[in-house]
Amino acid sequence: MVDTEHLAIVQLDARDAPGGLKLSTEAHWNQNQDDWHFFLTRGTVFGVRDRRENLLATAALLPYTETDAWIGMVLVTEEYRRHGLATRLVDTCLNTAIRLGLTTWLDATPAGAKVYGPLGFTPTIQLRRLRLAAAPASGAAPLPAGKLDEFLTCDISALGFDRRALIEELSARPSSRLVSNGDAMALVRDGRTARHIGPLFADTPAHAIAMVHDIAASENGPVLIDAVAAQSAFIDGLTASGWAVERPFHRMRFGRATKPAGELPFAVAGPEFG
Ligand SMILES: CC(C)(COP(=O)(O)OP(=O)(O)OC[C@H]1O[C@@H](n2cnc3c(N)ncnc32)[C@H](O)[C@@H]1OP(=O)(O)O)[C@@H](O)C(=O)NCCC(=O)NCCS
Question: How many structural domains does the chain have?
Answer without folding.
Answer: 2
